[in-house]
Design brief:
It is a single chain. The protein has 40 residues and is mainly α. The protein has one domain. The chain is 62% helix and 0% strand. It starts with a helix and ends with a helix.
Length: 40
Amino acid sequence: MKDKIKLWYDLGLWSAQMVRQAAEKGVLTQEDAAEILGGD
């Protein structure tokens, strides 16, 4: 799922807030979210 979310984020289909929410819900780890967001 991490790869799909990274792609969606890179394509602009997901916002940073959506990535953070996925981490809060357990879809991603906090580390994965930070990696996708480039350390945001």
